[in-house]
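Example 198.
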Amino acid sequence: MKIISQPLFPSVVWTTLLDDHKAFNSQLMNQVSALQDIDPRGVDNTNVKGWQSPNTLQNLPAFEEINRRILQVCQRIGESLHFKSGQAYHLQAWANVSPPGASNKIHYHANCHFSGVYYISLKAPECGSIYFRDPRVASRMMTWPVEQITDFTAEEIQMRPEEGRLYVFPGWLEHGVEENRSDRDRVSISFNVLAASR
Ligand SMILES: [Fe+2]
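Predicted structure in complex with fe (ii) ion:
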């Protein structure tokens, strides 16, 4: 007897590693530090004990290259999902500096197609992982009698962050970031992307 399984409504996280991330990230690190020097207070959002810039990176020439790359990746993903051609991809991006002890509460991003994060500097795995919560509401009504958790039975799935890797996921997928238990700052750029008719 052959049992066939077919995933329905999959929740996807897309990732890509930037080839030139070492040199690129050291430049970005300087740009983020400069931004933090100008505005040491930052903004309060889902960040606990961490610094977050305002959502303005999309307007800053210093971040032009990372903005371009984020949009390029999201556009490629949109094409793979058969988004209508000729859509304009709108970006909002911000920087995060999470010192030891900092974390991000679980949240989602309304009114955007894609959300994501690009990691500039961190010490994995001690810096903590990004985690995603199962969006299938019905599955939270009971627990599975399992000895080992799989992607199907998990209530949360963690993905270890990696310097130079860009992670993209649907804006509705709830996510948070574990506490940084390393001795280094975890530095990243987060973003939302909306595809709309021109
Ligand atoms: Fe987020």
